[in-house]
Amino acid sequence: FRVKSENREAIWNTEEVPEGSEFDDAWDPREQPEYEILFKQQVGTEDVFFGMTGKDPSTACCEDIVIKIKLPETKYSDITLDIQDKVLDLRTPKKKLLLHLPYPVNSKDGRARFLSEEEILEVTLRVLRKFDFINFA
Questions:
Q1: Which residues form the PIH1D1/2/3 CS-like domain (predicted)?
Q2: Residue 129, Cβ neighbours under 10 Å: how many?
């Protein structure tokens, strides 16, 4: 069994390394915060009452991913957030979250807001979808 490689001195191919593994740090003692992933879609009356566009309640028809992260005893200025196409990396002095996202997202066009009363960071990301028979607009 032999694997073809461009570089003969490489010990593995780049396809063998899981996406987002460069963010993983098993030795970091910070605990992972509680989080919740929600899916959001835009629907109109043609979807709700008539079913004209073919959208259904599944995640295949959702346009946005909303991630709610509980960060007790955290200030907004202490949060570091890095979004890649398939990875969300959140760091605070007490918490660390490395989340592999279920769908590729537009990392340049997202929103984050910190709800200080509830101590929750809410991150909204636009899902990048290929056009198909469900997602054609």
A1: 32-128
A2: 15
* Cα–Cα distance measured from residue 6 to residue 77, given in angstroms and rounded to the nearest whole number: 45
Name the residue among 26, 114, 109, 113 with its Cα closest to residue 74.
114
User: Domain map of the chain by residue range?
Assistant: 35-136
Single out the residue of 136, 115, 114, 111 nearest to residue 126, CA to CA: 111
Edge to edge, the sheet with strand 96-100 lists 80-83, 87-91, 96-100
* Sheet with 64-70: strands ordered across: 35-40, 64-70, 120-127, 105-115
**79-137 per-position pLDDT tens digit:** 999 999 899 999 999 999 999 998 899 988 899 999 999 999 999 999 987 765 555 54
Closest CA to 30 of 95, 74, 90: 95
- The answer to whether domain 35-136 has CATH 3.40.50.150 is no
Confirm if 94 and 73 have CB atoms less than 8 A apart.
yes
The pair of structure tokens assigned to 63 is: 């346009």
Regarding predicted confidence, which is higher, 45 or 86? 86
